Amino acid sequence: MVPRGGREVARFLRVSFALGQLTNSHLTRPMTTPLNYSWKPCPLGHSFNLAGPEIKAQKENIQENLEKGFICPSSSPAGAGFFFVGKKDGGLRPCIDYRGLNKLTVRNPLPQWKTFSLRTQVHQVLQKHRENCLFAKLEKCTLEVLEVAFLGYILLDQGLAIDPNKVSAVLEWPEPTDLKGLQLFLGFANFYRKFIWNFSTIVHTVTNPTRREVDSSRVDCREYVHLLAFLFAINEINSNPDILPNVTLGYHIYDSCGDVKKATKDVLQILSGHTKEAPNYSCMQRDNVAGFIGDLRSDTTLQMAQLLNLYGYTQISYGAGDSLLSDRRMYPNVFRTVPDNEIHYMAIVKLLERLKWNWIGIITSDDEYGEREIRQLSKHLTNHRICIEFKILVSVKNYNTIPPELKTSTTEVLPKGRCSSECLPGFRKALREGYHICCYDCVPCSEGEMSNQSDSENCQMCPENEWPNNAKNICVSKTVEYLSYEKDVLVIFFSVFSILFAATSYLTLGIFFWFWSTPLVKANNRNLSFILLCSLTLSFLSVFLFLGRPVDITCMLQQISFGIVFTISVSSILARTIMVSIAFKATRPGSSCRKWVGVKLPNTVMLFCPSIQVINGILWLSISPPFQEYDMHSYPGEIIIQCNDGSTLAFYITLGYMGFLAAVSFVLAFMVRTLPDSFNEAKYITFSMLVFCSVWIAMIPAYLSTRGKYMVAVEIFAILTSSAGVLFCIFFPKLYILLFKAELNTQKNILGK
Known about the structure:
Blueprint: H1 7-22, H2 52-68, E1 81-86, E2 92-97, H3 99-104, H4 118-131, E3 147-150, E4 153-156, E5 160-162, H5 164-171, H6 179-189, H7 199-202, H8 204-207, H9 221-239, H10 260-272, E6 291-293, H11 298-311, E7 314-317, E8 334-336, H12 341-355, E9 359-365, H13 368-383, E10 387-394, H14 404-407, E11 427-431, E12 440-444, E13 449-450, E14 460-461, E15 466-468, E16 475-477, E17 479-481, H15 489-514, H16 519-523, H17 526-541, H18 552-586, H19 600-623, E18 627-631, E19 638-644, H20 648-671, H21 682-705, H22 709-740, H23 747-751
Parallel strand pairs: 6-7, 7-8, 9-10, 17-19
Antiparallel strand pairs: 1-2, 3-4, 4-5, 11-12, 13-14, 15-16, 18-19
Helix pairs in contact: 1-4, 10-11, 12-13, 15-17, 15-22, 17-18, 17-22, 18-19, 18-20, 19-20, 20-21, 21-22
């Protein structure tokens, strides 16, 4: 530290240090220093364990000093330990343990110093250093400053001051809990006694317990720390003119001992300015009381506040947390440096919720403050559904005694803080009848509900397109169901048989074309056979409209296309039945049925009957067409993509009309079943319509009793089986004659001659 006015010294120092940075070689100095020592065994130094970085730094240090000539190799049996200490900049400073050598060394007498000029001597010393190439590192030096931190003090041009870092160590010292801790704290605090006026008097009551004949339990170490902080703050304020200029603070210190009556007495003594309490009278001759600091406890603070409020004195408490002190109407002059107890209550509640405790007991002091604490804390606990099993008020004298209520508590649940086990996610609470709300059973969530938190009051419904997993603790997407080509074996089964039957129909049609001019084919009305085979082929292929993911266009084509195509098939069968009946009746002499023989009647039937179904389909699509629908509720955990018929009436009109045509064909065919066997296909029509009607009559209840893709599968099965029944019953006997019994395919045999 260089004071003001010594700038020439600072410049000299900078030059000296700069020269040191430019000098790399060492000088051999002609001087020697004799070392006298007593005759004793050679000193052996202590060996220190070094870490990896320290070993590396040691080697570098030895090598550097060898190169500079400061040290040289030695074979002496004596030795000294080598270790490192940390620097402020993070580096390592080498240290050598010469204590063994110091014990042998005979000290030289100190020189006699004379009065000298500091500036002159500094110049001489620095000059000698420069001549012998002894320099300091410039980056380690601080020049032209007004204060320097040194050994726990601040060196100023006016004197000494306390290092703030050391003061913070005193303020942050942990509260002593035993005699040893108190002694350590006093030893540390005594270092600054010269800075605190009347220090010995202040700490007298605290130093007494350090003596073995005094009971240390009578001293509140926490209050002693508060006292030191107060005294230090007063000293700092009075010594700093920038805080309260032209004002000096004084103080009276009284110990209330945590007693309400003593606190009241102390306040009256301070206000009276006399050893005797004199309410409403002051004997003070100097200065007025500016305010009161205290107390630590809420009960004594409240009593002081009620008294001081009458006189309008300001009061600052550093420990009272009672919520009543927050009422500015009752206590307008009371201020605190600690938060309200409400903060503590909220912290307790959050801690209990964090620990998942909901079954607790409260133990507090047996006084007005304790009762108020129970009321306020109970309110917070109840609002957060935390149950209180017991409330115990204990007097100060019996703090160390276990209350009898605690001994008779529910000890099996007290250690874990719960009356009932925690309900895991996927379960909800079910209150036990006649028990406290914290005593409950855990029941699984109902179907379609989930809970993702522990101790849930109620389970929650999943969104419409989601469903709980097996544990019922999260919602997962529902499974989408329809007759899929990728996942359902039924689709493959239906596809194979649909193609197979359609191919059979085409093959039959080809055979009929091959034998187009034969008597058998001519006798079966070739046009009606052609229409019937084509309509059966389309019926088989219409199955593919029901397979795969339904969309609006396929939904509209499913029922309408199937209904029209199947109506054409049944209409052609009806026309064939009418033609068979009229043909045999026309062979009778004088029969009036001969005028109906020809193509007019079957053409009329083929035009009129399907037209009704076509009109129904057009009205269906115009008024209420089928559409794609998502069925969320038929099966749990599934979304069924299906076709909504739009108009149920139109759907059943379609089925009913086909059934009506089939029934008429069946009745007519049954009536002419007794005609001669030659060219009598009435029997085959009867069997085909019997199969057709049986399939669809059985299909209706099965169709109505199923949902989703299985309902579609029932309809597809009915389409395939009924169409296959018509194909096999009507055309297979004819194919048998055409392919294997050609001798029967003659006009003579057809006419039965």
